[in-house]
Design goal:
The structure is a homodimer of 204-residue chains. Helices cover 75% and strands 0% of the residues of chain A. Chain A has 2 domains: 51 residues, Orthogonal Bundle (Arc Repressor Mutant, subunit A), CATH 1.10.10; 149 residues, Orthogonal Bundle (Tetracycline Repressor, domain 2). The longest helix of chain A is centred in the middle third of the chain and has 27 residues. By secondary structure, chain A is mostly helical. At the A-B interface, helix 8 and helix 9 of A face helix 8 and helix 9 of B. Chain A binds a DNA duplex (30 and 30 nucleotides) through helix 1, helix 2 and helix 3.
Chain lengths: 204, 204
DNA sequence: TATTATAATGACTTTATAGTCATAAGTCAA
DNA sequence: TTGACTTATGACTATAAAGTCATTATAATA
């Protein structure tokens, strides 16, 4: 706790923030340790006091970018009663979070593909995070199937991935078409659109 | 025409085939010109007689991988009458092509993301190809909306991208879960699954 | 203030790989 | 067979960027 006030932790955060900013601005392929040192206002060697290597920097940037998303979304979703309401909320919260972290996700989704630059182990943890999300959705789907609302032929996990891909595709579409202003009204509209397609697609 | 028989053309194809094989086996990030030369059984300098640079090799590998897909799919789709039948055929043909070029798409989809390694101009042509596909789908959607079958609130182009992402997600899911055997029965099942979700999602 | 411990520096080393080019081998018309 | 032209070679150069480490600056302690 006290540690959080030390220079060490602050410098870690400071370098991490610089890294994220750089990556948002120039993409993963143009991100170098020299640029990071320069941008963070430290010497290159200093970075290696706080991070193991470049992969460690990238992994932390990604982790921090996705960190709160899942828990925040899960909180809201769990408050809802029906599978349908849960899915509606999930889509909305997800798009909201993407909108709030517009520049981060724009790079992660468009400038693709961070993943390439990660070591195998880091890639796996990235995929695991994705899968965890799909599993979360699959549980909602299963509940809906049990209640007889959703088609019982669905593969719940795969259906979870389908929903994630719809959300991502929506975000990419809007990034590309410069609907840069992610105001709440737009997000309501967009999430309703995805919801209407997805829910009719899986309902009995 | 006569040229097609010359060594020049053959060597171009031979290098290209080696490049594709290497990329399928080891992914884009491990692909080097030295390996290519070695694998194709030519000296490195020779590659540069047939390709401008590494980007040119990658671009050609990608182009050749996607080449016939679109035209073959479009041919089959155009023979169908109703928007629903067109969409059903489109999904099936797309999955079939992916199955036939399993190793290629496995790398392109999973080992992600080739795109990073391309120059801006090549990335654009990749995105254009994607968009062309989405436009093709959007025309079917528009027809369906006009006929009153599909929801008239749909953004046809975005909906096209949605369908593409569902197909891609399905393929990735099956690659990951090692349903490596892409036999026609599996493809029929998988494409029917996507169709059922998508069509119910967009129907009135 | 002197001494020790910790943090920071950046010039340097290392490595990987794209692309080059002088040289050699092969082909073919006269 | 020869000489001109085409094709192929691979050792070499250039470059970018990751990661190191001897040195220096700063802070903590006695």
């Amino acid at each position: 706790m006290a540690e959080e006030e030390t220079g060490k932790i602050n410098k870690f955060d400071c370098i991490l923030a610089s890294a994220r900013k750089l990556i948002e601005q120039e993409g993963f392929s143009n991100f170098t340790m020299d640029k990071l040192a320069n941008n963070a206002g430290v010497a290159k060697g200093t970075i290696y006091l706080y991070f193991k290597d470049k992969n460690d920097v990238l992994e932390n940037v990604l982790k921090s970018g996705f960190q709160t998303m899942f828990s925040r979304m899960a909180d809201k979703v769990e408050k809802k009663e029906t599978p349908e309401e849960k899915i509606k909320t999930l889509i909305y919260e997800n798009l909201l979070y993407i909108g709030e972290n517009k520049y981060f996700f724009k790079t992660v989704f468009l400038d693709e593909m961070h993943v390439v630059f990660l070591k195998k182990t880091s890639q796996e943890s990235y995929n695991l995070r994705r899968k965890k999300y799909a599993v979360f959705i699959s549980e909602i789907i299963i509940k809906g199937i049990d209640e007889g609302i959703f088609k019982n032929v669905l593969d719940p996990l795969k259906t979870g991935f389908y929903l994630i891909s719809l959300i991502k595709t929506n975000a990419i579409y809007n990034f590309r078409n410069n609907h840069a202003e992610f105001n709440e009204d737009l997000i309501k509209l967009e999430s309703a659109e995805i919801f209407d397609i997805f829910i009719d697609g899986i309902k009995n």
